[in-house]
Design a protein that fits this description.
Chain lengths: 809, 385, 171
Amino acid sequence: MAANKKDLKVVGKPFRKVDARSKCVGQTKFADDVILPRMLFAKLLRSHVPHALIKSIDVSGALKLPGVIAVITGKDVPIPYGILPVSQDEHALCIDKVRFIGDPVAAVAAIDEDTAFDALDLIKVEYEPLDTIANVDEAIRKVEPRIQEYGDGGNIHKKVHLEFGDIAAGFAEADLIREDIFFYEGNTHLPMEQHAAVAQFDADDKLTLWSSTQTPHYVHRAMAKVLEMPPSHVRIIATPNGGGFGGKSDPFNHEIVVAKLAQVTGRPVKIALTREEVFYCHRGRHPVLMKVKTGVKKDGSITAMDFQSFLDGGAYGSYGVASTFYTGALQTVTYEIPRYRFRGLRAFTNKPPCGPKRGHGTPQPRYALEIHIDKIAEELGLDPAEMRLKHLVPPHSLTANYLRIGSMGLGACIDKVVEASDWKNKFRKLPYGRGIGLACGSYLSGAGLPIYWNSMPHSGVQLRLDRQGGVCVMCGSTDIGQGSDSILAYIVAEVLGIDPFDIRVVTADTDLTPVDLGSYSSRVTLMTGNAALQAAERARELLTTAVAEKLKVPASNIAFADRRAFDVENPDNGVTFAQAVQLAEAKYGTIGTVGSYTPPASAAKFKGGGVGPSPAYSYSAGVAEVNVDPETGIVIVERIWMAHDVGKSINPVLVMGQVEGSVYMGLGEALMEEMTYRANRNVVHKFPSLLEYKSPTTLEMCDVKTFLIEDPDPNGPYGAKEVGQGPLLPIPPVIANAVYDAVGVRVDEVPITPDKVLAAIRAKERGKDGRYGPSSVPNIDWPEPLRVATPDEGGDGKEVPRELVHARE
Amino acid sequence: MKAATVKKYRASWFTHESSGAFIPIALAGERGRLKKPVSSTRGRNRDECATKFMMRLPKFTYQVPRTVADAVRMIADAGPEGMFVAGGTDLYPNMKRRQQTPKFVISVMRLAEMHAITGDEKSGVIIGGSVTLTEICKNKTIQQVYPVVAQAAKLISTPLLRNMGTIGGNLLLDTRCNYYDQNYEWRKGINFCMKKDGDVCWVAPGSSKCWAVQSSDLAPVMVALDAKLKFVSIDGERVVRASDLYNNDGINYLNKRRDEMLTSIHLPPMNGLKATYHKLRRRGSFDFPVLGVAAAVKVANGGTIENARVVLGGVAPAPIEVGDAAAQLTGQPFNADRIAAAAEACYIKARPLDNTDFVMGWRKQMARPFTIQALKELWQLNKTE
Amino acid sequence: MQKAHIQFNVNGETAEVAFAPHKTLLEVLREDMGLTGTKHGCELGECGTCTVLVDGLPVLSCLMLGLDAEDREITTVEGMAEGGKLHPLQETFADLGAAQCGYCTPGFLLTAKELLKENPAPTRDEIREALAGNLCRCTGYIKIYEAVELAAARLRDEDVEVAAEVLYGCE
């Protein structure tokens, strides 16, 4: 895909977003702003018990309430669904069983919200309580009752065991073997916009659903399945998301429920969730307990790594199988790890399901890894920045677990933050109570494989040019605030030499736009960008031929800029962009082009190898400077220097916005955000509210110095890689490492709250280990490993057949 | 595709409205499996109900009197179903969560006589009950004469809430608890608590009393300053010391009748008293105190502490005046030893439980450094003068 | 329940509205007046998303009764632009990336508008203090500060250039 080699006019420039002004004047229509004539309002009745069989549901009282139009229960929507083909374990309304406080059991449509609410009181549900499973330990211990009837036995959802290379030989070569245990508490996305959806059936039985979703394509699939409708009769429109962060990536109960209620009543139906319900939708960060064992040489080079993770998944599968693999996938893409073993377990518990949150499954192991590296560097007497720099994964290489690395700007990132923060003069040199730390990270620019197996493109763009000079870009991608609509406009404008604000962008409408898989896994800029680039280049080619004919110059002389097409050798000789379209339309007929993008084939051919491969990896490095009050344990983060290798900024202002936003969200996770439950009180969520779930305010947010590193990746449009998630990854470990530098204690558990810091300080003062964190992991019968020989060992990315493994042993 | 199913539902398309009245429609096929209707009473401890969510106010009658006399008459007429509302920042969230469901809500925001700040350094200052927290922060007299009041007011919640919330509302703030400040259905999930709809205090299940936490930032300050509060009801006026208003019980946390209106706060002349307030909370805004230390100290000529008062907020159902801390200071020179001794007394008295943000053990430990910080600040203030 | 008929002054225009008397100003604006520019994030006063100006002062419309808005001047985000011209804050928020998802934006804009009226040249810390009651999950607030600072300068009629650091990152 040849990028425009000439000076870029749009790409790389800090344009405002194409939808920014409408967001600043109140014009943007979010899902709850959709108002239709005769619209009804739906409310969900949710379980107040954590685990129970549903003995009976009586809706007769609700139906009698004036203003109630319809009531449905699980029997009206009996078909299961779920985001992953392997976890079709959700029902729009529970049928036989509820699995957490907040699981919906019935739904009401009424003339207004007040009436719908009152009606819920009149629905009688009889439950037969079951024993609860509150955490991973209990899930391992209690085989019965099972929360789900599938999985790897009892309340274990998934167990995986992967081994890349001769791990024992790797550890045998090591000068030092270190083991550490970490815990990363769960937390949630907390988008400011609560989920909402509106459904309408037209007179021909066709459904339109407006919903705040990041993945209209997957909602489309689930909806057609559950309502047993031809997908061609289902239209999903993702409204601009008022924040997503991964929390709106699953098909949700309420979306299916409003569609069903609209079908039943023949009227539009809206639902807007309360903040508390958003906590119950969750799909956020898994709580993960981790054990990492690494062998290193004296120079810090890693000889082998053995990583275990235990994920508390909540009551449903969601993306959990992928999340489990992700906790073991990206350890290998930063520092060279020649041999690697990963064991992961996900348990079902009676809590809202966990899923993908910004960084999906990778911030937890990154937290463990970056602190672990910091501890190893100290043990070896090496500067942690230098040790990292020495052993970086080379660009354009293949890791032990068969991830294909393209451009790799981590070294430049580390250099930048080390220099800017005056690291050399501060590290281990600041007075007691002040500290500095460093950590790195890497993330995918889009998952290399789709969620359901198919060989079609991951992203499609359609471009329509009209004879007035109008250009319309159509793409299934969803703008969740990251600016994906604008990226489409910038790239098309760049190629066609027009202004991005000349372009009409139509996105996230399954009737009008070609499929894009959705706004998850940081895939959108790379994948839709490539598709848009292809479509625009094809359109330009048509225009070029027509214009060249008209101007009687070779096609290779035609350039597009400033809303004109002209002869580069004689720029006055040209036509306006609208004239160029007219010439092309006269020559070819209506001008429309398409572009699509399919990621390169993965090098990983083994089972489970679908998680981790990506067309490109972004890299980031951060340095944090903190103040720790040794009397209270309170940590104040003063400043973070953050360098991010984005390949190429399509728009630097938007890239910075993603870096700063990631730092913010990482800071919240590092210091205060947590989804916690009272195991001894029916596993209730401790505080499902915006007041008690602590999201940092302006007063907690630190100063951020952002550095954009541009190491263009051949797979990215103009070289661009992701930025939406990667910069979050270094933040929790960078704070932990800085706290250690400040007061000499290790907090191996997120969030790093003052009580933990103070406990570690006090322990150290008493001559004990100055550490706060978990001390053991469960003993598990892991399945036989799936063995893959590494590229260095001459492997081909496939599983080593079992008989060969045994023969070698 | 089961076209028949869809068609069946379609039958109800045009039938659900008739002559403007809404008639509920059962789903096709639904009536057959409906059970005999059960009584719809919503009571506590009813397992057959499930959880629903609402962030709208329940229905109530709203009254906006223009004089105090009208207001107290209205509340008397309303009886036990009546409540006053000022800024609404405490009551309305509680109503939306169905913790409080008054049938009559009487606003005190349009009572002209309650919006004034009058007086001066010599005679003391009177603050009307409906003065907003923002107005207090910005008032020159308060800034100059009672900086601690402006300081504490500025630490309350957020700028937006301070534009709405009033001093009266803050002083009468409902006690707070993580088991109580939840919506009806969440509370049902734990079978309710004794403060509302239940029998047990989940914070201390063996306890016969409720341990919801006094969470006003101004309450400990008013106790430390020995402010007086004027209440009006149809029975007349009553003036009480701030320290006598609060009761160490999460349910009956105010020694005040429901029909009494807090019309004004009377700050006595400072006469050389210096005071400060230090607040512990997770974030620099929004959050209620999980520990507040209000300290007031007067140093006589010659450097001896003439009198002292240290009051802890956010650790019990009432502000806790730590007499032992005062005893460690009074008649003594102001120095680090005395401060440490007073802080130790506060540490002993602070007995927070696990019903707010943060770990309770740590909150208790924080009583020491927070008291030290507060007293050190006053020590410095006295030194520099 | 009988509806209340109230005359509102919203965005400089008088409107007569009928609504259930227990409705909040937020609900009345969105549901009875079609002014959906005002958003909601919690309905409990815990996020600042629903901020509107009442007599020029930013307050939370989720905790104010519609009835209390009678004879007060209400400004919502829809009323910030005047004479077809965006308010400088709206321009700078759009230009500098201060609105990512845009959901908290109306609340920030209105809070910032009052700040700049009271304090035409706020320091970074004063901006932080003033905006401490508005939560944003996208931006990390930094772009918002920069937008407020730029709008403040423009409102003071200062000819300012945006620093390269703001547009391209640090060198």
